[in-house]
Write a structure and sequence with these properties.
This protein has a nine-stranded mixed sheet with strand order 5-1-2-6-7-8-9-10-11. Strands 3-4 form a two-stranded antiparallel sheet. The chain folds into two domains: 240 residues, TIM Barrel, CATH 3.20.20.70; 35 residues, no CATH class. Helix 1 packs across helix 3 and helix 3 packs parallel to helix 4. The chain contains nine helices and eleven strands. 40% of the residues are buried. By secondary structure, the protein is of the alpha/beta class. It is 28% helix and 21% strand. Helix 7 links the parallel strand 9 and strand 10.
Amino acid sequence: MVSGHSVNSGCVATATVTNVQRFSLHDGGGIRTVVFLKGCPFRCPWCCNPENLSTEPEVSFKERLCIRCSRRDGSALCATPPEQCPTGAKELLGRVRDVDDLVAEAARDRAFFEESGGGVTVSGGECLMRQDFLLAFLDACHGEGLRTAVETTLALPLDDPAHLVRACDALLVDFKIADRARSLEVTGIDPDLRDANVRSVRALGAHVVARMPIIPGFTDDDACVAANVEKIVGLGLERVDVLPFHQLGEGKYDSVGRDYALRGVPQLSDADVAGVVERCERAGLTVVVHGE
């Protein structure tokens, strides 16, 4: 059990997916098709995918798009099912998909992958919550000749590290709040467990890329940046993706009925993270702003 959630609950054959995003350019190299698995045991205040926090399908509602087709009696509630909503104000977030179905969809972009050196990336949520499905999907992608990557905190116990390394061509691993006590308090993430897992998969030959989201008030202070750089170098990693805070997820919170702690906080420019980039480069790291 992790943060009240059971890891690997459910059947390997299916998982709940919110989105299959095509033509992504910052999630593992080349043109990527990104599969977003639903469910995360952690609660980062800046999360840009709040629709992927719960494990179950849920309905989003965008008031601005509502034409009140079922609310003419003054009701505050919309009774129209998402699949019948004429404007898209209501949308079902999360659909149960199986491995073969997902691989077939991803393989449609094979020509783009081959031309750009891209492939399939699995994200979330935290996709390690469903390691059974994740490994089966990654294996099936490899069976189709598709390169694979995983975006993860790597902060859950690994069922089969060797299998993960075989199935995944790149692990994109988050380095967020460096101080363990504060990280556990704010997000629920244990950076010590992440670091142990990084050592484990690297010993098995994994290609690991560090990712540092720079979040105002949480991960942007000098002490946090310095500690993360020290950890990344100490773990033998050679590249870090510096990810400036953005507000792409801000509008999602109201639609799923969640509070957002960083509402209205200005997003960061490349110039705002120039000092972070310089510190990483001084430490001998290859830096990619926004990732690739």
